Amino acid sequence: MEPEDSANSELSEPIPDTSRDQGAPAVGLNLKLKELVFDGDTILTDLDLTLSPGKITCLLGPSGVGKSSILKILASFLPPPESSFLVTTDGDPLKGRISYMDQQDLLLPWATVLDNLLIGDRLRGDTPDTARAMALLDQVGLTKWRDARPDALSGGMRQRVALARSLMEEAPVVLMDEPFSALDAITKYHLQALAARMLAGRTVLLITHDPMEALRLGHVIHVLSGHPARLSLPLTPAGAIPRDPSDDALQRLYSEIMTRLAGEPVDA
Amino acid sequence: MEPEDSANSELSEPIPDTSRDQGAPAVGLNLKLKELVFDGDTILTDLDLTLSPGKITCLLGPSGVGKSSILKILASFLPPPESSFLVTTDGDPLKGRISYMDQQDLLLPWATVLDNLLIGDRLRGDTPDTARAMALLDQVGLTKWRDARPDALSGGMRQRVALARSLMEEAPVVLMDEPFSALDAITKYHLQALAARMLAGRTVLLITHDPMEALRLGHVIHVLSGHPARLSLPLTPAGAIPRDPSDDALQRLYSEIMTRLAGEPVDA
Amino acid sequence: EKLTVLLDWFVNPDHATLIIAEEKGIFKKHGLDVEMIAPADPNDPPKLVAAGKADLAISYQPQLHLQVAEGLPLKRIATLIATPLNSLVVLKDGPIESLADLKGKKIGYSIGGFETAILKAMLAPHNISLDDITLINVNFSLSPSLLSGQVDAVIGAFRNFELNQMDIEGYPGRAFYPEEEGVPAYDELILVANSGKLDDPRFKSFVEALEEATQYLVNHPEDSWKLFIKNHKELDDELNRRAFASTLPRFALRPAALDAARYHRFAAFMQAQGLIKTILPVHDYAIVLQ
Amino acid sequence: MKLLRILITVGGLILIWESLTALLDLPKFMLPSPLVVAEALYSHAGLIAENALTTLIEILVGLFLGLVFGMVSAVLISAYRPVKQWVFPLLIASQAIPVFAIAPLLVLWLGYGLAPKIVMSLLIIYFPVTVGFLDGLNRTHPAWLNLAALLQQSGRRRRLRNTLNLYRYIKIPFALPSLASGIRVAAAIAPIGAIVGEWVGASSGLGYLMLHANARVQTDLMFASLLVLTVMALLLYYLIDHGLRLALPWLADQTDLHSQQRSL
Amino acid sequence: MKLLRILITVGGLILIWESLTALLDLPKFMLPSPLVVAEALYSHAGLIAENALTTLIEILVGLFLGLVFGMVSAVLISAYRPVKQWVFPLLIASQAIPVFAIAPLLVLWLGYGLAPKIVMSLLIIYFPVTVGFLDGLNRTHPAWLNLAALLQQSGRRRRLRNTLNLYRYIKIPFALPSLASGIRVAAAIAPIGAIVGEWVGASSGLGYLMLHANARVQTDLMFASLLVLTVMALLLYYLIDHGLRLALPWLADQTDLHSQQRSL
Ligand SMILES: Nc1ncnc2c1ncn2[C@@H]1O[C@H](COP(=O)(O)OP(=O)(O)OP(=O)(O)O)[C@@H](O)[C@H]1O
Ligand SMILES: Nc1ncnc2c1ncn2[C@@H]1O[C@H](COP(=O)(O)OP(=O)(O)OP(=O)(O)O)[C@@H](O)[C@H]1O
Ligand SMILES: [Mg+2]
Ligand SMILES: [Mg+2]
Question: Is A68 in the pocket of ligand 2 (CB under 6 A)?
Fold first, then answer.
């Protein structure tokens, strides 16, 4: 079988899980923003976003509505606006418990694919977990490219490396910004399954533009829309994830999401 | 209506078309590659791709299969491999008749959104067509951001600027690499309509990962898959574009595309 | 038209006659408009005159021999200081009591091109060759390098200047005079002109003005000092006052006069030291303006 | 704030300097105490000011010419392969020949006066500007160059015009940060050129004054001149640095944002 | 090929030089003809070689120390805000004080051996390296820094270790191109320090030899020394440039690809 295709195969051997906090209870969190202003322009008002512990929360919304900004505030990449509150269910700060995947891939241009995966360990001064990295590379179908530099990768391949890097981390909270946007339908399907498996039991915020993706992976689905944007009431599709997108019940939710996206927000 | 939303509105006034070669017959082209090799690894073999004059040809395929590379060879960003042929229907070289939108947005970081749209005119030493640029900005819903630098834009907004920039050019051949990948469903829907309208009569190669997008916009749809990759026979959905994606006939083609993507290439 | 005169170095009491001629209006009286320029490198002025970038330059007799040997079109037209000023200086309280003690020591010098010759001649009677000492170019930090103990002796120190300087700093020096140690006497400071421009009438006036200024200087040392510092306030210090006094007896009283035999003798010395290859007729490089 | 900090730094330095001379009991010719220097500064104020002016003019003219020539060279070298291949080795050689090794010759050719000093500042400044800018120009990412070439192909074919526009709208903006880096280095070393020039052949200027003061063992005057020169150079540097920040706002933004974020 | 080109350049230069001296009938002390210089080079070969060795050692040691100190300073300055605020002005000042304005004093403090020359090369080289590297370090895009900070937060809290790793794995690799730019400038100006050092006090070295030759109006010997110095500096530059290219392959790749594409 060609390496390119291994992402497309159902997984037999699971990633060795060397998680330090295995078994630790998942942490939920709640973010309240009164408003988010950029250059005098109010992007968001009265946001109240809850991430249930151990669940995948999907966030959809029109382009430029403020999804990535919320993610960055959670990751403390953006200073939290005044009168904003962030509380966790266990009361401990969020710092140090986050894994993050940016909308841009943020691969290190001089490092090989493998080194890009190991950068977290290296930065922390831990022994690089090469076995885990190679296993993940296999899962995303890039084993053959372990020594390639990002330059030599296609857009989708870069995104897969970034995905694998965020999965390298075993943080209890995972923030992902459109992690599958540059992938074809088949690869995306398989990697969604991979993500669902690897993120099981962790608290995830996943931004996506694909309602089907949200329906497949999300325990809770929020739509952010309007200007300034407001958060819709959560949709909670039934069934274990990853769900089968051809399910009829999901088709109904699909239209619901599209309606909300189109701009008739249901106030939370 | 908020600027953010104007992309979502059906268009009333069309973009003023100041095309120099208005009415010139569209140019088709044929690209034959014996093989495409990167670092000793054969990516593609025996590619024979025809772009019919005045038609939109969509290209789908798994991540890393070589789609962007084909686009770059057409744009002469990559040296054409040995024993490759590129012929146009009118016999003239392709050079100078191409508009290109990269998979990365390639916005100039120091220039404002408006200046990014005008860069083509500026580089050619033509009078910047500010009116057209503003009209396009309006169409992609970014009027308010004309003076913002790309730094301050969200991922989808950047992609819209890049789209607008490629539409600024009136070249008879348009090459687009996943132009709507970072957009939400609604915005995508409207911008697809905009593209369909503005690209009418031009010869377009559009790479996408979204089969629905291909079905909505493509006169001809090719799937590239396998390793080394080969091109499938063309699918030619009926009906004028943009088509309605909920059409049942399209649903059948959708499955067809998915099958081909999954790796059972139908040889061309 | 301005007559540009390049000094050999910054303005110091060696130039007293020139300054007095200027301040007292003697140049003006002779119809001269003189511009004096102090260079940063004493080796430059003759070359600039040779290159036609200046009219007259103050130089040193030994240098003149070297320069004409290298083909520079220069001729000496007047003498400013008629004795050597150069001397080998050590610390008075230091370990060097005679030249014989210099064996194995470090000697600092400011490159003029002929120090080695003078040293060789001075040390030869004491059975010291140049290989027995370390020569160090200290550029123009002659006294500081000696005072700070970086070198044991310096050659090229002016007896009217560096000796006083060291004395004032509280480290009195002991001088060994080349003309007493086997080196033929020579004119320390001379005026050179481009040999192609000797018919310039201003040169003769200049030398006459110089003679007049020298007479005034010798007759009125006190007033001369006041004239000297009148427009050079930065020179009004202990060092220059003492250097001024030390220099007084050394000015050439007849600036125009040329002792051809003395020049010839020195040329022969330079040849013997291997600094020049041939001895040119004196009138090829030194003349008395008619 | 910043000014205060600088003042404190300077004050601290003077204190260290003073205690150094006092403790080690250094003779004046090795290191004069700040007080002595201040005195010299005061008593020779006129002399120093006059010479400082000469040096300032040399530095400014040299800097201006160095920047202009450096920028033009960098553009030419990057734009025309032959120029790069043939001229660049010369450029390095011109640096390798320490300017002031040829300074005596420069004086011979150009005489005393401003010319040789300006040539020397220019030679010294020219290089970092050229190398910095050139590096930036060569580092423009190929994707943008490809795109620009494509955009230009659809216009009429005017090679020179196109090249000019490519530089104006793509390459130069991309290279500006590197150029700024080069200019900073140049601003800091600009005084060297002028001073070296004065050292080899001059009849005025701070370098000349220092040399003479040094030879006369007027170490106090020498340090006073040095002080003035340093202050001049510092002012120059900060003015240019400030100017660059204003001129490249999108870089400044980045840094600001960055520090904002880090302060979290 | 490249060698051939350089040879042709050099040949052409010599031709121009020769015809210049011949046509203008310049006297030897203004500009000796290449033939005369070649002769001097040959007849004084031993002397020149001996002195060249001294200078070479001074340059290499100075360069090495300058690079090390420059790089360390840049990292410290960028890593610790206080260091930047307090130390950076001093750094500029250290440049602003032309090294060789204090060269005479340095010699008094350090004697006439290798030390003052090395200190001077170091002072001259230090600055472009520091500024270049610092600029690169400060320009690291915040997105990567944010990501790195996040990745580090999940580890144990060891500030120093984390900072070191951040530099090692993120900031330094990002800054390498700018550092390379700085090193190039440094390599080209490295000889200046050594030569100035020799000028103010030395008993051997090419600069010393040149001073002598200059004083004795042996312009041929002076040019011969100058030639050797230039060749030495050029070799140094190209060696370092080559080394840098090898050390930063991902930049070289980019350029190669680019030239490939342009050649279409
Ligand atoms: N510069 C390069 N050097 C080496 N290999 C390259 C280079 N550019 C592309 N490739 C390889 O060529 C293959 C095709 O890349 P290409 O970008 O064309 O893929 P793609 O079909 O556009 O994928 P995606 O959907 O992920 O964008 C990939 O395997 C990639 O690694
Ligand atoms: N640094 C900034 N300066 C000014 N405005 C900003 C900045 N960053 C984001 N914005 C603005 O904030 C808004 C939300 O941006 P954000 O990236 O959160 O959008 P998004 O919902 O992620 O969109 P997309 O789906 O296109 O990625 C946009 O209007 C954007 O212009
Ligand atoms: Mg976003
Ligand atoms: Mg692609």
Answer: yes
